[in-house]
Design brief:
The chain has 175 residues and is an alpha/beta fold. The protein is built from 7 helices and 7 strands; from the N terminus they run H-E-H-E-H-E-H-E-H-E-E-E-H-H. The longest helix is centred in the first third of the chain and has 18 residues, at 28-45.
Length: 175
């Protein structure tokens, strides 16, 4: 299969995962099959960094990660994580990171969840051009605003938050 043939050519895999939103829930069984195949392939290959989404499926995604990509056999970045606080704790215990974008600060529930995430597991993302803020697609420059807002949530200044995120990124990139 093509995915397995090309996997040795990259360290980065994504965006992969499960989406049980109304537009995609009918294909969830097929999504699970594909996600499990990807996790298994990445575990065999070793040292992969995966960007994973978990729309309405956080605990199921974590079940598959725990089973098929144990801690130390790859690194998982949970993109725009919207699971429960318990799911977030479990994800952190599994060694997962969390990528944060500007749009996540629109929801009180999301902001509350962000405040519970471990500082050493936070990264930023744009999710542009799919995400819009004030009617315009988010660009890489929007990360600065996400850093500032995230710093406000966790009680750090923008520069301290930026340094923490940079250190986290370095940890993700280390083999």
């Amino acid at each position: 299969p093509l995915f397995e043939a090309l996997l040795p050519e990259t360290r980065y895999v994504g965006e992969v995962g499960l989406d049980a939103s109304p537009a995609h829930y009918r294909s969830i069984d097929r999504q699970v099959d594909v996600f499990r195949r990807i996790l298994t392939s990445c575990q065999r290959a070793g040292d992969k960094i995966l960007s994973v989404h978990s729309v309405r499926t956080a605990s199921k995604v974590l079940d598959h990660i725990e089973e098929l990509l144990p801690k130390g056999s790859g690194k998982v970045v949970l993109h725009w994580f919207s699971g429960s606080v318990a799911d977030a704790r479990r994800a952190a215990a599994l060694g997962c990171y969390f990528s944060v974008n500007q749009a996540m600060f629109r929801s009180e529930r999301s902001v509350a969840l962000l405040g519970t995430l471990p500082l050493d597991r936070l990264l930023t993302e744009t999710d542009g051009p799919f995400v819009e803020v004030d009617g315009s697609p988010v660009t890489p420059g929007g990360v600065d605003e996400a850093v500032r807002m995230l710093g406000d949530v966790v009680g750090l200044g923008a520069e301290e938050m930026r340094r923490a995120i940079l250190n986290n990124l370095k940890a993700v990139l280390e083999p």
